[in-house]
Structure formats: structure tokens, C-alpha cells
Amino acid sequence: MSARFPTLLASHRQIPAIGLGTYQVDDAAVQALVCQALTLGYRHIDTAEGYHNEAGVGRALSAYFKQGLTPREDIFITSKLWSGNANWGQVPKTYDASLAAFESSLDKLQLDYLDLYLIHAPFKTQDNIAQWRALSHLKKTGRVRFIGVSNFNQSHIESLIKAGLPKPDVNQIELHPWCQKPELVAYLMANKILPMAYSSLVALANWRTEPQLESAKNVQMMQLSQDPNSVIQGLAAKHQVSQAQLLLRWALELGYAVIPKSLQPNHLAENLELFHFKLDDETMTELGKLEMGEGVSWPNGDPSK
Ligand SMILES: NC(=O)c1ccc[n+]([C@@H]2O[C@H](COP(=O)([O-])OP(=O)(O)OC[C@H]3O[C@@H](n4cnc5c(N)ncnc54)[C@H](OP(=O)(O)O)[C@@H]3O)[C@@H](O)[C@H]2O)c1
Asked: Domain limits at 185?
């Protein structure tokens, strides 16, 4: 793996520090996006059963591997099991259904193993446990290198451990200066569970501006995003980087992996350029003061709450 894109080490596990998010990129568009990202040097692609774009990611990976430039083991692929929420009229996945969903994801991705497989969100504890048992089996049998959860809080994770199952390798959660989850992060770090930050760029004025992309970002946050004299804008200027780079570097400074999403080639390139600068203590302290509470990425509220 190129030294330009360092990996994060969490208890001897290597997971790329920067990945490409693909939420709300449809199956047709994702193929070109992933090809472009891999060519630029992205080495981690984040997808999910629930994004309905695994087949497009798979077509991009297959075409990329055929070029013979990069071996499979140098590309890190994450997908997620859609757990199923009875309150939304869905059938929660059983142990067997979880194994079947994994095989279906792998098929669509045209892969014979995954690097990371996550339970997308916690719904009912007994379902989480059955699903986690399935993921643990997949890891034990070598079908996936790392397993983890997403949107789980401490009590969700403790219920897996109390059931006698292994700890997750990763928890993918919404993390940015407006949503810092200090207690959960301290718990994850103490337990060597890597925090993978999603929606790192919520504080940007252009974050999910397309009308169909819903979120719980409120009017006060929108106004703050557009303020040319905001703290984030000032700190980005101080470090001579873009606001996006500042927000992503904040996460790296704290030891989180990041998975920004962009459809713009210049943004894709910029989001990889995070290693020519560092954030000093003063900047980290200023960013630390911006906490605003729960995550806003999910329109119906932060699922870890
Ligand atoms: N596990 C979960 O529940 C969960 C939830 C949400 C997200 N995720 C994962 O995390 C990924 C990232 O989160 P996200 O999709 O919410 O979005 P994000 O990466 O926080 O932000 C994306 C937005 O920022 C803009 N952007 C990206 N780079 C930029 C740059 N350098 N300068 C200016 N604007 C920039 C993009 O617009 P342009 O296209 O115009 O650049 C887009 O509007 C998702 O795609 C998904 O893979 C997981």
C-alpha cells in the first residue's frame, strides 16, 4: 500500500485511513465514481446492502482488477448488512438470513471475501445478537477479514459481549466537530474498536444540498455552514486548506478512519490530500468547542441514540 495513503493501526489491524463513501450514489453512477476514485489512489470503498449500489461497485472493481495494476489485497472493501427494522415494516434478519445477505453482497461485488462487514444499525437486541453471531462465523471461517457495527452505542456493543460474542473491530458512526460523541469514542478507544467517521462534512454549506437528500440538519446549522466568518472557515484559512480538508484532518488527528463522499473529481482529489499539514493543539481545542449534540445524517435522528 502506498506510503502516501497511510493505514491506521488499531491493535495491529490495518485499515486505510481514507475511504470513499457511496451513500445515495445510484448503481449506474457508482461504477464510474469508483473507477475514478481507485485511479486517484483511494484504497477503501464503503458500500452497503441498503445503498442498492453493490453491483455497480462490483463492476468497477472487476474492471479495475482486470487492468492488473493493483492486487485485490491492496483494496479494502466494506459492506453492511441491512439489519431490518420491524417498526418500519421490515423483517429483521435472522442468523441464516444474515449469512445469505452476505453471500448476496459478495456476489454483487464480484468478490470472494470482504475486508469489513458491518451491521448497519442497531434495532432489537435479540436480532443484533443473531446477526452478530452470523458475522462472527463469517470472520472465523475467513469470509471477511474484519467485522464491525455501525450506529451502535456502548450498551448495544455490551449486549453483544454479554452474549459471549467477540468485540467488533470497528464502529462506523457519525462524527464531526458538531457531533463528537466523547463518551462513546472513549469507550471505543479503550476497547480497541476503531471509530470510522461518517458524514464528516456536515458543516459544509454544500453538504447534501440536493433536495432528495434528506437529513436532520436544521436551519441554525445551515446558517452556520454559510457564515463566511465561522470558526471552521477561519481555521481552514489559518492552515491554508479547504474546510473539507480541515474537517477530515480533525478526524484523522483523533485516530478515526474517514469515508468522505464526493461526485466531483476535484473534491475527490482534495479529500485525499490530508497529509501535508497537521492541526495544532490550539486548532483542535477550538474545533473541540463546536459540539452541538446528536448526529444529523439520518433524517429521523441519530440511530446510535
Ligand atoms: N453507516 C451509516 O449509517 C452511514 C450514514 C451516512 C453515511 N455513511 C457513509 O459515509 C459516507 C460519507 O457520508 P455522507 O455521504 O453523509 O457525506 P460526506 O462525505 O460527509 O459529505 C458529502 C457532501 O460533501 C460534499 N463534498 C465532499 N467533498 C468536498 C470537498 N472537498 N469540498 C466541498 N464539498 C465536498 C459533497 O458534494 P460534492 O459531490 O459536490 O463534492 C457532498 O454534498 C457515505 O457516503 C456512506 O458511505 C454511513
From this structure: 7-288
